[in-house]
Amino acid sequence: MISDARLLKALRLEPVDRPPIWFMRQAGRYLPEYRALRAQAGSFRTLLQTPTLAAQVSLQPVSRFGLDAVILFSDILTIPDAMGLDFQVQEGSGVRLGRPVRTAEDAARLPCLDMSRDLDYVLETIERLRGTLAGQVPLIGFAGSPWTLACYMIEGCGGDFPTARAMVYREPALLEGLLEHLTQAVSEYLCAQARAGADCLMVFDTWGGLLTAADYRRFSLAFLHRIVATLRPTGKPVILFTLGIGDWLPQLMDTGAAAVGLDWRCDPRRSRFLAQEKRVALQGNLDPFCLFAPPDRVSQLTKALLQSFGSEPGYIFNLGHGIRPDTPLEAVSAMVAAVQHFGSS
Ligand code: CP3
Predict the structure, then answer these.
(1) Taking the CB of the first residue and of the last residue of the chain, which one, N or C, has fewer CB atoms within 10 A?
(2) Full-prediction pTM beyond 0.90?
(3) How many CB atoms lie within 10 A of CB 141?
């Protein structure tokens, strides 16, 4: 039964034989088999939009390492792309959206999405994965947070988002309108992913940490609250991740999410103390740069992290952010083995 999977048990705060492990960007460029399939597809976009290929990529890291979850191979920028913003990934220079949203007229032009028409390829990838996985390994669906999507949509590219951050002060009402529109799209997108067969849903609030405490509450957290509430009837657990959460961790734990993801800067013991009080699970938070240490050291650092999270239920091993494309495979194997053998020796 899928409900007996370590990941889903940990999300329900039930005891497990060892912590479940998966990691952000587990299907990506550090894997030679990913690079081969991407070259064959010709572009990231084709890989993403071809359900047979996207399903195959999603399974690669799980086949290689025996991980405890599959994360859908997709991107948070599928929503802006479906709204007509034209998402491109350029080799070496990151992401670009061809038609950024800068004015009220731009925002008014954004369509309301119909998930089964506009993001059918994502739902088809999930359905395929559900068939292949046959209830053996849980499948994580995901979306970007409204604020994080707005950052890319306003700026048109990655970086430190000066235009989006100026809009917080220059045109807060326009920003709020855009966030409302995105909240509806993200909620519907995640509900559709749940219906298609995702067992768990994760929201990446990668740029929430750029905001002041008051603005984080108004422009990101408030919308995360609403998304979690909308997803409750699906019965699927939700994981929220804000990069650079800092002092606002308790507020993120109060959203009703089953788990919160921690970046590498969060202190495991302090986070655990808070999480136990609030009855939420934790996910994280090995520094992705740890994986540039020799494999023996990676193994030690992984064990030390597991120890600092302790053995109480409600912990999922992960990195503190996405794995770097130049990460050595031996280090990843050492990290995975350290978690898989934890407690058995
Ligand atoms: O985690 C997984 O294995 C699932 C797939 C996944 C991707 N992107 C694939 C991808 C997930 C969950 C994402 C989420 C995502 N995408 C986030 C939130 C998580 C985070 O890292 O904070 C963000 C901010 C994006 C936006 C995005 N997509 C950027 C900034 C880039 C370019 C930078 C980079 O890492 O190259 C992408 C492209 C992208 N998304 C790649 C992958 C594997 C690289 C594409 C390639 O060149 O093959």
Answers:
(1) C
(2) yes
(3) 26
H/E segment holding residue 105 = helix 104-108
Contacts of residue 274, defined as CB under 8 A and 6 or more positions apart, other chains included, come to 249, 250, 253
Distances (CA, A) of 113 to 84, 187, 199: 10, 11, 23
Residue reference for tokens 């990676």: 298
Q: Please return the burial class of 157, using the count of CB atoms within 10 Å of its CB with bins 0-12, 13-18 and 19+.
A: middle
Is 152 designated active site?
yes
Q: How many CB atoms lie within 10 A of CB 77?
A: 21
From first to last of the 345 residues of the chain, give the pLDDT tens digit.
899 999 999 999 999 999 999 999 999 999 999 999 999 999 999 999 999 999 999 999 999 999 999 999 999 999 999 999 999 998 777 999 999 999 999 999 999 999 999 999 999 999 999 999 999 999 999 999 999 999 999 999 999 999 999 999 999 999 999 999 999 999 999 999 999 999 999 999 999 999 999 999 999 999 999 999 999 999 999 999 999 999 999 999 999 999 999 999 999 999 999 999 999 999 999 999 999 999 999 999 999 999 999 999 999 999 999 999 999 999 999 999 999 998 765
CA of 25 to the centre of ligand 1 (A): 7
Give me the catalytic one of 30, 34, 152, 315.
152
**Cα–Cα distance for residue pair 34/132, rounded to 1 Å:** 19
Contact 64, 31 (CB under 8 A): yes
Is 265 annotated as catalytic?
Answer: no
Please, are residues 89 and 47 in contact by the beta-carbon 8 Å criterion?
Answer: no
CA distance 147 to 211: 10
Residues contacting 244, CB < 8 A, separation 6+: 208, 209, 210, 263, 265
Residues 342, 307: contact at Cβ < 8 Å? no
